[in-house]
Amino acid sequence: MNRIAIISDIHGNVPALQAVLKDIGRRGVSSIYCLGDLIGKGPSGDVAVDLVKANCERVVRGNWDDFIGKETTNGALKWHQERLGPEGLEYLGALPFSIEFLMSGRYVRLFHASPRSLYERIQPWDSHESRLSLCEGSELCRDPRPADVIGYGDIHNAYLQHLDGKTLFNTGSVGNPLDLTSASYVILEGEYGSRETADMNIQFVRVTYDIEAAIQEAVDAEMPMLNEYIQELRTAKYRGITT
């Protein structure tokens, strides 16, 4: 069987990414796919881009990867743009929208947020119809057909659900998890490229990493919106919100 590690939402947190890459290597998984948001929030987007380029076989574009290349007057975004430089911005802007393939007789589609947009946010507690819509295709996808297995990132909240015969999962976040403080990723196991129905497994992995080292990197870099970032890493709550 083939095994693919699926990571997402690194957000410039290099200690978390390094811990996840080490764990993937320890498990003997050689193929890694990334579902976007390599940069933003954390201080080391440039290093995260280099690590993803060196280690990931396929990468799609996230919402941060998309809007970071646009002109802005926002001081925090300008700070991240300067850290990335022209080469990093060009790489992010050229990333594709989705990854699609057959595995164990099922059509698998992976994207950042939804099959329709990089900016449409759907949570595991949203309506049945909203979640089921993630199984649909669109003109942005390589193939518009509905998918059997759907994986995405964006919401930083790992989960697995079965909906009307479809399998839906979210990888959670490597660098900015908002469910638990440990980094999250998924291992997808099956017969890659096969049209024949066969076993297929989805495994969620949580990896402990040095949160304080990640915070110190941000402090040393004099990163904007530092307090908000620290709260999210230490509490796994969006901007420190507890309700």
Q: How would you describe what is shown here?
A:
30% of the residues lie in helices and 22% in strands. With 243 residues, it is an alpha/beta fold. It has one domain (2-240): 4-Layer Sandwich (Purple Acid Phosphatase, chain A, domain 2). Strand 4 (98-103) and strand 5 (106-111) form a beta hairpin. The model has no long low-confidence stretch (mean pLDDT 96).
Write down the CATH class.
Answer: Alpha Beta
Helix content: 25-40%
Distance between the termini: 42 Å
Looking at the structure, the CATH topology is Purple Acid Phosphatase, chain A, domain 2
Number of helices: 7
Quaternary structure annotation: single chain
* The CATH H-level homologous superfamily: Metallo-dependent phosphatases
Regions with little confidence, pLDDT below 50 for 5+ residues: none
Major beta sheet summary: 5 strands, mixed
Q: In what range is the share of β-strand residues? A: 15-25%
Shape: globular
Order of the strands making up the biggest sheet: 3-2-1-9-10
Strand-pairing-aware structural class: alpha/beta
The domain tally reads 1
Average pLDDT figure: 96
Order of helices and strands: EHEHEHHEEHEEEEEHH
Give the helices and strands, then pairings.
Blueprint: E1 2-7, H1 14-26, E2 31-34, H2 45-55, E3 58-59, H3 63-67, H4 75-93, E4 98-103, E5 106-111, H5 128-132, E6 149-152, E7 159-163, E8 166-170, E9 183-190, E10 201-207, H6 211-220, H7 226-235
Parallel strand pairs: 1-2, 2-3, 5-6, 6-8
Antiparallel strand pairs: 1-9, 4-5, 7-8, 9-10
